[in-house]
Give the backbone structure.
Amino acid sequence: MSEPAQVNGVRFELDVAGVTVVGDQLHGTGPGYLYLHGHTSSRLRPRGVHVFAHAAATGQRAVRIDFRGHGESGGDPVNTTLSDLIVDVERAVESLAFRPILIGSSLGGLVAAWFASRHPDSIHGLALLAPALGFTRSAAATMDPVTGEPAALRQAGGASIAVSPAVARDA
């Protein structure tokens, strides 16, 4: 698949409990998309670029955000919990003038599924791309039974990601 040309939307910032969440919006018609990226990714990585390119080519509205602790958004990725990411989506959806189709990739898919289960009337639809539905089980499994401290989560390819105890407990 060839890389689409970068489509730039209108940049915006949301204050989410004192943390700046950055995103951009592409104006258009239809119910519109809200793209949610995966862990350690950002809205400007290939999947986010493809969603915006598709929206531009079809005249659809689209929004994409960087979760807190990712991309251009503020926050500490080591201490960002799943609940924090769900709040990011709640605030983003509240700011929209439309009910979006959530498109969640990897961890963004898990967050989208949780958001949709809590707020089904706030969205128009849901598309999950390789959702990280096992993330919560993986995070909980990293807890040391003696100290209660988490070990690092391992990603595909063997890279590890540090997580705080709060992140593992929240999962």
User: Anything to note?
Assistant: Residues 82-95 form the longest helix (14 residues). Helices lie at 46-58, 82-95, 107-118, 135-141, 165-170. DSSP finds five helices and eight strands in the chain. The chain has a mean pLDDT of 85.
